[in-house]
Model the fold of this input.
Amino acid sequence: MPAGPVRHLLVLGGTTEGRALAAALDGRPSLRVTSSLAGRVAQPRLPVGEVRIGGFGGADGLADWLRAERVDAVVDATHPFAAGISHNAALAAASTGVPLLVLRRPGFTPVEGDRWLPVPSLAAAAELLPLRGERVFLTTGRQSVAAFAHVVGAHFIARSVDPPEPPLPPSFEVLLDRGPFTIAGEEELLRRLAVDVLVTKDSGGAATAPKLTAARGLGLPVIIVERPPVPEGVPVVPDVEGAVRWLEQRG
Ligand code: NAP
Done:
């Protein structure tokens, strides 16, 4: 296992936390930070510092990259639902001996007045629809719209950064936007679109929480997809400060 100070850190990003971590470490002497993005979004918000974009070619490709670039530590700051890259990172860390930390923001916590229907997957969310033959506000991300393509009897309004690709539900419209959103803005939107049910993921984070507060205020049900588990045996911190501490403890 590589020992001693971390000279080259790989941050697997594509998230607010990934950008915040790169910013927090920017300018540290003798530390090279490379942020990695998948390349899914046409115009991504870029972290400060060195950035690489695109897949590694599976766990083996990532392991090769870690060796070739002499990476001393990896922080997996990817989205809580990006289970594929997190799995690959755990495998690559195990095969190379490079220390790995998962930076995962806490999930949403229900409060009084919430009408949440937790489900284990997008497929299970689709199975619940239509609840009452209604208008569905879908905020599960562009890549997940296909999971609802077979649902008839509901009208879908999907909000995403870039347009989703087919297959799409028969009754469907898209709203291109990206957070952060406000509670007042979300309430106005849910009213204007006459939304009957919200479908979302338990992503956590302040940028997208306002829709849940707005749904509560309007008494709307929320179908909420639960998170995939973090790979077993990998240490997890909930915030950027925790990741910086972990790094500093490594020397
Ligand atoms: P995923 O299913 O876990 O990953 C699929 C493949 O995409 C990975 O095997 C890897 O390709 C590549 N990849 C993913 N993240 C990468 C990264 N940071 N750097 C380099 N390659 C990456 O991922 P996803 O759910 O499609 O999400 C893609 C990215 O968008 C993630 O970085 C995530 O942080 C961000 N994001 C995701 C969501 C979401 O809801 N899923 C929401 C907001 C942001 P190879 O196997 O070729 O290495």
Observations:
- The longest helix spans residues 83-96.
